[in-house]
Specification:
This protein is of the alpha/beta class. The chain folds into 2 domains: 170 residues, Rossmann fold, CATH 3.40.50.2300; 117 residues, no CATH class. Helices cover 61% and strands 9% of the residues. It contains 15 helices and 7 strands.
Length: 354
């Protein structure tokens, strides 16, 4: 049974709406003006609107906003709107990586929806968009918010189904300035403390997942040293090294130095073939063991093994599914099935006409 949508007046009284800061970015001026007018009619009047992506980045960098309504196809700037959302979530743009973000898309195809879902937005809204839908989404986010997860390239709301899964990552509670202002509890000092705590928790979560994934991929390359697996191992090691170097302080510098060395080793693994790759792989296990000992300080090494093996199996399955040979075999089977369908269809038709 579907739940009734939450009305704005249920969670945000009119006298508190003027404090909600909104950046509205839409390439089509008519739609932009329609949404701005609708929000103002709801007394959400602190709005800055634009039709250029680089302007959005500037606004987020220079101000403290609660909501970003972002057209997924907005022109201008470097990269796409999805890239900008990803930068915000990773702390590369603006002071609050957890600001509310609504992505709007015009008649998206499956690939566009996938890219939008993977960048970390709170919600995806399909246009043409009724202003009432946007208002309902704002009300819903003011009432409650999903917890966040971090792993690989993704930082954003936890959209996993509630079904229990083995070794599931525990999500993190993040600040929601929209809810704070709706409840009259917003305080800049408290927000700064909450942001710092949430960012530390997310960084720790990301480091733990990347370290475990690196250990799993090393296991995959040991068992099947394919080029695709070696390249993925190199990518994950480089991401981990860059992440650690970016947050390096006196307390995490050894981990950053170790990850940088591991990045060099995995690059050598990816470049080499045959016995050369096997020799380079011998350098990696002791480094991974040291990294796990540094980062997974709250867990015994033996307790990590089932999770690493589970992750390795998943990585191997995904690599197998994406291998050129397997894709070629799948296409060949599809072609045969289609040909047989045509033949059988003709036979059936011929039998029916006799």
């Amino acid at each position: 049974m579907d739940m009734m949508p939450i009305r704005l007046d249920q969670v945000l009284t009119p006298n508190r709406r003027a404090d909600i800061s909104i950046v509205l970015a839409e390439r089509h001026e008519n739609m932009r003006q329609l949404l701005v007018s609708a929000l103002i009619a709801q007394r959400l009047s602190l709005i800055t609107s634009t039709g250029e992506l680089d302007r959005v980045e500037s606004l987020i960098d220079q101000g403290e906003h609660d909501i970003l309504v972002l057209d997924g196809g907005l022109p201008g700037g470097e990269g796409s709107a999805f890239d900008l959302v990803r930068k915000i979530r990773r702390g590369g743009v603006g002071a609050n990586p957890f600001m509310a973000i609504f992505l709007t898309l015009w008649q998206p195809d499956r690939e566009t929806v996938r890219l939008a879902g993977e960048c970390g937005a709170d919600a995806i809204l399909v246009k043409p968009l009724a202003p009432a839908v946007l208002v309902e989404r704002i009300a819903a986010l003011a009432a409650s918010r999903k917890r966040y997860i971090a792993g690989g390239d993704y930082v954003g709301p936890d959209r996993r189904r509630p079904n229990p899964r083995p070794f599931a990552t525990e999500p993190v509670d993040v600040p929601n300035t929209l809810a704070m202002k709706a409840q009259g509890t917003f305080d800049p000092v408290t927000l700064a403390e909450d942001l710092g705590a949430a960012e530390d928790a997310m960084r720790n979560l990301w480091l733990r997942r990347q370290s475990m994934r690196l250990a799993a991929l090393a296991r995959v390359v040991e068992d099947d040293p394919s080029d695709a697996a070696a390249r993925l191992l190199e990518t994950v090691a480089d991401d981990l090294a860059q992440g650690l170097i970016g947050m390096a302080g006196s307390d995490i510098e050894p981990e950053a130095q170790l990850a940088d060395t591991m990045g060099q080793v995995t690059r050598a693994i990816a470049k080499r073939q045959g016995s050369g790759r096997a020799r380079a792989m011998l350098l990696l296990p002791p480094m991974i063991e040291a990294l796990l000992a540094m980062i997974m300080t709250d867990r015994a090494r033996v307790s990590l093994e089932p999770e690493i093996q589970h992750m390795a199996s998943g990585e191997a399955e995904r690599l197998s599914a994406a291998s050129p040979k397997r894709i070629a075999r799948q296409r060949a089977r599809m072609a045969i099935d289609q040909a047989m369908s045509v033949v059988l269809g003709r036979q059936t038709f011929a039998g029916a006409t006799l």
